[in-house]
Specification:
The chain is of the alpha+beta class and about 375 residues long. The chain has helices spanning about 5-10, 15-30, 40-55, 55-65, 75-80, 115-120, 265-270, 325-340, 355-365; strands at about 70, 105-110, 120-130, 145-150, 155-165, 165-175, 185, 195-210, 215-220, 235-240, 250, 255-260, 270-275, 280-285, 295, 315-320. The protein has nine helices and 16 strands.
């Protein structure tokens, strides 16, 4: 089998500049425009292939490792008896496929509390890898196909002789010329650069279920990137973030809010009609309501995740005291106080603040 260093006429310690110089010299002699003979054409292909391998640091390193050089050391001994896949594992046999599974992807989507109530369908745009429309994942320019590697002869691996304490042993290593594929693409697709896939923005319709919360993730199988060489798609994960609402906050599937009630309505009671997320909410304010009381409206909260049951709406009452009264209004209030024989201000048991009482009643229940 041809040795790339010998093909270019350089030593194995040649610098990248020496390799480039040798290639340019041979290319000027063997290029079809200069030397149209069939022999020169074949040599030119071999010189070009050798330069492609040795001019790339990673390919050159792999080639050097799999180029049939003698070596030694405990690493080689371990690889010999335990395989290149690690201790106790067998190394890969035969060429590896160009087609591989694509990477998973994740995007974050903001949703409103209205979206969370019952679920909604939404279109999301993702920037991902899709199948190349020109080569359809073959990685080759249309009309061409991969050719068998002239180093490993399609095996994807080369033998390496190792000197050890036990004598000379032979190990298998990925071919540095074809990167273990067993074939070489001489005419890569110009659209995808020989990758079999291209980047593209595409729109995907998704069903956002009811009851999701910030941090909830939805998995769309096969919605991720197409793999190299037209391999199967990875998965797409969508993580949701519920936006702040000006009126309602959330406790599980319950909705929490505060309702301001006038002093007279708190005294006499009133039927209130409030604008909810999904329509009008009717709430009965009992006579004698106090600040911090919680009114529960059953079944008007959020529909649970994968459920048809809805939470409740819990409304905290905040009684507002008027700050500016006319003379007539003050007289009426004084008359009410006299009729009720209300006590003068006095010290009593310490009471927690309004919002503390609301919090405890929200989470303790009515």
């Amino acid at each position: 089998m041809a040795d790339h260093y010998e093909t270019l006429g350089v030593s194995r310690e040649a610098t990248p500049e020496e390799i480039k110089k040798a290639y340019r010299k041979l290319a000027r002699q063997l290029h079809p425009d200069v030397n149209p003979s069939e022999e020169a054409s074949e040599r030119f292909k071999g010189v070009t292939h050798a330069y492609d391998v040795l001019s790339d640091p990673e390919q050159r390193q792999n080639y050097d490792m799999g180029g049939g050089q003698n070596g030694g050391g405990f690493g080689d001994i371990f690889e010999t008896f335990f395989g290149s896949g690690g201790f106790g594992g067998a190394g890969q046999r035969g060429p590896r496929p160009r087609s591989e599974r694509g990477e998973d992807a994740m995007i974050r989507v903001d949703v409103t509390l209205e979206d969370v109530m019952f679920g909604v369908q939404r279109d999301v745009t993702v920037n991902t890898a899709v199948l190349c429309g020109v080569c359809q994942g073959s990685c080759c320019q249309p009309g061409t196909h991969p050719v068998t590697c002239d180093v490993c002869h399609g095996q994807g691996q080369v033998q390496r002789q190792v000197r050890s304490l036990f004598g000379n042993v032979v190990t298998m290593h990925p071919c540095g010329s074809c990167q273990g594929y067993g074939t070489i693409i001489e005419n890569p697709c110009v659209e995808c650069g020989g990758k079999g896939r291209v980047r593209e923005r595409r729109t995907i319709p998704i069903d956002i279920p009811s009851g999701i919360d910030t941090g909830t993730r939805l998995q769309l199988r096969g919605g991720g990137e197409v793999g190299p060489g037209g391999g199967p798609n990875g998965d797409l994960f969508i993580e949701f973030r519920v936006q702040h609402h000006d009126v309602f906050s959330r406790d599980g599937n319950d909705l929490l809010c505060t309702m301001r009630v006038s002093m007279t309505d708190a005294i006499l009671g009133v039927d209130a009609k409030l604008e909810g997320i999904d329509g009008v909410i009717e709430a009965e304010v009992p006579a004698g309501s106090q600040s911090g009381d919680v009114i529960t409206v059953r079944g008007r909260g959020i529909q649970g995740l994968r459920s048809t049951t809805r939470g409740d709406v819990k409304i905290a009452v905040q009684v507002t005291t008027p700050t500016k009264l006319s003379g007539r209004e003050k007289d009426l209030v004084r008359q009410l106080a006299t009729l009720r024989g209300e006590e003068k201000p006095h010290l009593g048991e310490f009471q927690q603040g309004f919002f503390g009482k609301v919090r405890d009643r929200f989470f303790r229940g009515n």
